[in-house]
């Protein structure tokens, strides 16, 4: 995450640097991105970049984390609206993310991110439900309070439910971007997998 000096910047300078990061990481993947281009776009000395971030991965993950944070309250609010229905909430968030990223200035950035995803990136992006302290996160607390429609009895089981749904969601997002699926087709495929999880995979004897 950024150093304190980044957060000490005034809004205009911070915004200009963020735009420079988005521009470069939209042009190229994290591996191929150039710090020289970032400082050129931001009109800052190269040394200043390292006063704000450890390296370009640190800067990249900051952008990913910021997007995940945007979705955290949205996820918790939808969970309350659906009376704790995790499946409906994940379906809503999945559609919202695909539509939000299909157009606009974030589209190419996330296309590069999804097609070059690693574990650290996935954890950072999915922080709207998954944190280092999941059981104390707002989405988890909300889900536990409203978990009457899940066949679970402990918080540990709910942690695993979140992990499964996050994994399925991220897989589908990456697949949708990699294959350039239309939003509706991608949502249909995702819903099939959610329905399979809801029903279970074993036949009743």
Automatic annotation (TrEMBL):
Gene3D superfamilies: Tetracycline Repressor, domain 2. The keyword DNA-binding applies. SUPFAM superfamilies: Homeodomain-like (SSF46689). Residues 11-71 form the HTH tetR-type domain. It comes from the Bacteria. Keywords: DNA-binding. Residues 34-53 bind DNA. The keyword DNA-binding applies. One of its GO terms (molecular function) is DNA binding. Pfam families: TetR_C_19, TetR_N. This is Transcriptional regulator, TetR family. It comes from Amphibacillus marinus.
């Amino acid at each position: 995450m950024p150093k304190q000096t980044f957060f000490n910047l005034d809004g205009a300078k911070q915004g200009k640097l963020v735009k420079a990061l988005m521009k470069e990481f939209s042009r190229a993947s994290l591996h191929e991105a150039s710090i020289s281009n970032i400082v050129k776009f931001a009109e800052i000395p190269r040394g200043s970049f390292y006063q704000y971030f450890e390296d370009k991965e640190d800067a990249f993950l900051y952008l990913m984390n910021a997007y995940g944070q945007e979705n955290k309250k949205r996820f918790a609010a939808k969970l309350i609206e659906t009376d704790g229905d995790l499946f409906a909430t994940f379906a809503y968030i999945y559609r919202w993310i695909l539509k939000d990223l299909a157009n606009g200035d974030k589209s190419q950035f996330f296309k590069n991110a999804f097609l070059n995803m690693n574990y650290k990136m996935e954890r950072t992006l999915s922080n709207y439900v998954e944190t280092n302290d999941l059981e104390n996160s707002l989405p988890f607390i909300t889900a536990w309070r409203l978990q009457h429609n899940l066949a679970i009895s402990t918080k540990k089981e709910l942690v695993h439910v979140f992990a499964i749904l996050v994994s399925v969601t991220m897989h589908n997002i990456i697949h949708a971007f990699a294959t350039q699926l239309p939003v509706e087709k991608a949502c249909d495929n995702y819903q099939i997998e959610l329905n399979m999880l809801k029903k279970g995979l074993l036949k009743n004897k």
